[in-house]
Amino acid sequence: MVYDRKYSSFSEIQPGTVDWDARLQGAGWFHWSAISPALNANAAIICREVLEAATRRGMTISTDLNYRSKLWQYGQSPVDVMPALTEYCHVIMGNIWAADMMLGVPLNKEAVAQNSKDGYLQAARDSAASIIAKFPKCDRVAFTFRFSEGPTHNLYYAVYYTGGQLYVSRQFETNDVVDRVGSGDSFMAGLIHANLHGFAPQDTIGYAAAAAYTKLFRTGDFNLTPRETITQLM
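Given the sequence above, the corresponding structure tokens read:
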């Protein structure tokens, strides 16, 4: 598998050349990935252009704090770029370690050092509260926890922080992983779907986590699991 964005059309767009207001016409939700501003300096500028257009149009904006170590090669680190772009967001998804590295949100290292679910949940609660305090537009934060003891093993759960409350998904575990690629995107898709359909917070995180888990058993980038199957696993 080749996972390379160099010379992709997005990586070569020049700032000021796209009418983003026109491109976003008719849409109500804009989602972007931290992979995009990691490509090059122009890509980071373009991300701001799109975010400003989405804001003008009154769209809900979400981001995924996914980090790729082979990117960010143009002299800027994630924490130099991501906070300014994240200021536009209403929904922020990632994990507690990415929040620290990409947004400068302090990690509760004492809680993490416990290496227990209770410790991780406390760290998630602290990080989410810090994100909402730091980014006033944000009122929803989701974190995933994925642990693996081998190529086909995965222990997975996720949390959703909104309204000052932390909601925790069901915990999933399997020794039959087929393909991990795309599980994070499936989680975010599930989270957006739940928000657009007015799910309660507990059902929102339950649906998103189940969507991510079902992707582990499908080959390829896309999760084609029926919605009814995902709902049964919430």
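The CA atoms of residues 20 and 50 lie 6 Å apart. Try to locate this feature in the token string yourself.
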